[in-house]
Amino acid sequence: MGDEILQETECTQTQTQKSQVDWSQPNTPSFIPVIWGRLYSTRVSLNERNCWKDTCLDNPPYYDLIQPEFSLGRSFTCTFVMRKEIINESIVKSVSKQHFIIKRNLSEPLSPAIITDLSFNGTFINGKAIGKGLSRVLDDNDRISVTHPNAKIFIYKDLLKNEQDKVPKEISKKYYISRILGQGACGLVKLVYDKTKCTKHAMKIIKKCRLTNGEVNNLTDPQRIMNEVNIMKALRHPCIVSTEEVFDTSDTVYIILELMQGGELFDRISKYGQLSEQLTKFYFRQMVVAVKYLHSQGITHRDLKPENVLLESKDEETLVKITDFGLSKYVGEDSFMKTVCGTPLYLAPEVLRANGQNCYGPDVDVWSLGVIFFVCLVGYLPFSTDYKELSLRDQILRGQYRYSNKHWSKISLPAKLLMKRMLTVNVKNRITLDQILNHTWMQDSITLMKIERLLMQAAQVRDFDQLTLSSQNSDEENNNSDKVTVLKVAVAGKRGLSDNCAPCEPIAKRLRIDACAMTRIQKDDISTTNSCSSTD
After folding, report:
1. Which residues pair with residue 482 across a beta bridge?
2. Over the range 268-279, which residues count as b (16 or more CB within 10 Å of their CB) and which as e?
3. Average pLDDT of the chain?
4. Would you give the DSSP letter of residue 360?
5. CB 41 within 8 A of CB 52
6. What is the biggest distance separating any 2 CA atoms in the chain, rounded to whole angstroms?
């Protein structure tokens, strides 16, 4: 018995070695085709008769989709040719030469297949007509019909789609869930596709979690989450990230957002080290316009930073939009902000001085804009825990920012003066948003024209007029067994929100300053503790 096992083991090892040798041969195919989808023939049909002819032996049970395009029709140029030998003649005679085409971008990870109707007599998905010349996203288990909703010929299987997220059915019916775009302390962001419009969106997933000791987790406090949701629903401006839809369940909030494909301003600065004055002016004016809009709506952002400023496209000159309103607050006549919140590196002095007791106003956003402005122009932070002369708190309270002659020598005097006026400790002397827009440095007719053109184009694509708030409750069971409230994008009336915002969030990502650059800054002959104070 032992000899048989030994012989079997030796035989297995020999086969493995032979297999490894065979695979190493030059004539072995190096490319293994990826089957991204499969079309299963279905027997459900018009008038309870099979669409496919049972007598045809050439009709396989399914068809593998390997190439990025699959076409169906009567034309011999189609990938799948509809012939009366394999399908009922009553259906074939109504099929167009090119009836529909399915495409999939295999270079984009987890992108969906898109089906386009090219026919005169209709292509149907799950019984609903697509429309000639129109497209829609093809999802797993979708039923494809031609010429009539009941003439179901295929069931589509998506072989590249990851496991379906446990999202409410209201979401999975409308959106195709794709890859992860990002993840932070407050939630997960995924790329999703609107199945009907074939448009891309970002879906922010926020769990309403609690800590094990029963205390509320500030980053996922339900009250804080709904604070963000209420604010986002109310905002409609070209320089504010739009909220398309909100799905609220008992334990999770799903926010469908406008997709910003240009990434964060943080990454754009990191890529170039610093931005030119011209490009800074182009981006910064849009930021100021957006913040001015927020303030006009009685909203203070309180967490402005390069990570919360997004770019619409990868183009250099693109729309800039502000996002992440988790720390924002409506400010009315009887509402005053007291909580210490925001990202420490961008906090205004009055926020630190408030210490949860005293009040501060919307001017805190001007200070944060000043820090962003500083970083855009020279590529390093004005205040940081890396600067050891003073604590971060004292640096901010005294307005003693790190000033490097080497970096600022290339910057124009009006830009320096504007920076100084924004990073002024005394709120009464700090520049206002209107004064920033009218500042000498901001007056550039070419930049103004470019921004105006972008804003007009955005207004044509999206309607920024007031919308109506509507909500509906769904009793249909979903994967989470929760009741889902769908909140359409709307302008809600201003409402007083709780003062129980989260305290400080974790310190944000640091700008990538190489060691040599940091050394140059620290050795600069300008004192960081005396001459850079801006308390006027």
Report:
1. none
2. bbbeeebbebeb
3. 77
4. B
5. yes
6. 94
Q: Which residue in this structure is represented by tokens 């031609």?
A: 146
Q: Phi-psi region for residue 133, left (φ > 0), alpha (ψ -120 to 50) or beta?
A: left
Active-site residues, by number, are 303
Q: Does the domain formed by 169-259+465-488 have CATH 3.30.565.10?
A: no
Class of domain 37-158: mainly beta
pTM of the model: 0.72
Start-to-end C-alpha separation, the chain: 94
**Domains of the chain by residue range:** 37-158, 169-259+465-488, 263-461+499-522
pLDDT tens, 33-67? 789 999 998 865 445 456 777 655 556 788 999 99
Residue 524 and residue 532: Cα distance in Å, rounded? 13
Asked whether residue 496 carries a pLDDT value surpassing 50, the answer given is no
d(CA 362, CA 67): 56
Q: pLDDT confidence of 351, banded at 50, 70, 90? A: confident
Residues 253-280: tens digit of each pLDDT: 888 989 998 989 999 999 999 999 999 9
Q: Is the dihedral of CA 145, 146, 149, 152 positive or negative?
A: negative
H-only helix segments in 24-107: 89-92
Round to whole Å and give the CA distance between 319 and 373. Answer: 17
CA distances from residue 63 to 58, 59, 399, 474 in whole angstroms, order as listed: 12, 9, 68, 37
The residue among 177, 212, 207 whose CA lies nearest residue 192 is 177
Strand order of the sheet with strand 471-474? 175-184, 187-194, 200-207, 252-258, 243-248, 484-488, 471-474
**Do 494 and 330 meet the contact criterion of CB atoms below 8 Å apart?**
yes
CATH no. for 263-461+499-522 = 1.10.510.10
pLDDT at residue 519 greater than cutoff 80: no
d(CA 298, CA 301): 10
- Whole-angstrom Cα distance, residue 280 to residue 411? 11
Helix (H) or strand (E) holding 189: strand 187-194
As a whole number of angstroms, the distance between CA 277 and CA 289 comes to: 18
Question: How crowded is residue 131: how many other Cβ atoms within 10 Å of its Cβ?
Answer: 12
- Contacts of residue 180, Cβ cutoff 8 Å, sequence gap at least 6: 188, 189, 190, 191
Cβ atoms of 249 and 482 closer than 8 Å: yes
How many residues are recorded in the chain?
536
User: Tokens standing for 6?
Assistant: 């030994």
